[in-house]
Specification:
alpha+beta; four-stranded antiparallel beta sheet; two-stranded antiparallel sheet; 15% strand; elongated; binds flavin-adenine dinucleotide
Length: 260
């Protein structure tokens, strides 16, 4: 639905140590009626949550799906913090990352550096609606290429100047790239490694996936929710990708209307 799809690679997900779970249950003289075909993330949240009432072996135990739905509906969201994933993210802009890192709680980020990495070979991502072949795209591309040429010229000029002669080679490069990158536009591609728990992901998806005019965030959120529904369907069951009445594009929506 969107012109420029970001890429999300799920490089790490929760894994359970069955021997240790069995040891815990045995030591506590408990049996746990576990649901079948549940992801480790969902099992882990149930395992963690049930300690509150030591409710592992109840006869009429809720299924994992019903248990987690109840956790979400009742706002007992700290339980969801037990499930953590790591992602490699590409095909997003520096505008995107600037907004992304505002999400401070439960999300860790490492990002491609413009001080240690020269950007001559960088990609630039056109905003939604600036379609290849259109006059607007040609204008956009011309401006971006001019900015990139200026960046490369600045790298050369600064390298040949005496400005940073007292610095070590490493710090001189940092200074040169820091100055030259001021010429690079926000639409430059960046790459990120992100580790986040399910609660933080839900908060992000609700805020960013549902902002109609923020199309890059929206398209990323739609992709992320699709991934997370594969990873842990019960934790994200109340969030859906729907077509917006306003523009016909996909948007993230809560079926309960709750904000978190
Ligand atoms: C449409 C839109 C426009 C925006 N415009 C701007 C803008 O113009 N300028 C700008 O600076 N930002 C802007 N933002 C960013 C916004 O203000 C938030 O910083 C961002 O969305 C992260 O949200 P968050 O604080 O809920 O996330 P997180 O930082 O991940 O926090 C998650 C939750 O933890 C709790 N929490 C976090 N920190 C604290 C704290 N210190 N004290 C108490 N509770 C806390 C809150 O419940 C919070 O919702 C905008 C966001 C949107 C969606």
């Amino acid at each position: 639905m969107f012109d420029n799809a970001p890429e999300i690679y799920v490089v790490s997900r929760p894994a359970l140590d069955e021997e240790e779970i069995s040891r815990f249950l045995k030591d506590e003289a408990l049996s746990w009626n576990r649901s079948q075909r549940v992801s480790s993330a969902e099992d882990l949240c149930e395992l963690g949550g049930r300690v509150c009432y030591m409710s592992y072996g109840r006869e009429q135990q809720r299924s994992n799906t019903v248990y987690l739905k109840n956790i979400v509906a009742n706002g007992h969201h700290s339980v969801l913090e037990h499930a953590v994933w790591s992602f490699m993210i590409t095909g997003v802009t520096r505008s995107f990352s600037h907004q992304f890192v505002r999400h401070r709680i439960g999300i860790s980020v490492s990002q491609l550096s413009q001080q240690y990495h020269e950007e001559q070979g960088a990609q630039f991502i056109p905003p939604h609606g600036v379609r290849k072949g259109s006059d607007l795209y040609e204008h956009w591309r011309g401006q971006v290429e001019a900015a990139k040429d200026s960046y490369i010229a600045a790298l050369d000029a600064l390298d040949n100047s005496n400005l940073y002669k007292d610095l070590s080679e490493k710090e001189k490069n940092r200074a040169i790239r820091s100055a030259a990158r001021s010429l690079l536009p926000n639409c430059i591609e960046t790459k990120m490694a992100v580790t986040a728990n399910a609660r933080a992901l839900r908060n992000f998806l609700m805020i960013r996936g549902g902002t109609p005019g923020d199309l890059e965030m929206r398209s990323f959120s739609v992709r992320l929710l699709t991934v997370m529904k594969e990873e842990a369907p019960s934790i994200f069951a109340d969030l859906e990708v729907v077509l917006s009445d306003e523009d016909g594009l996909e948007i993230v929506q809560s079926i309960t209307g709750r904000a978190k």
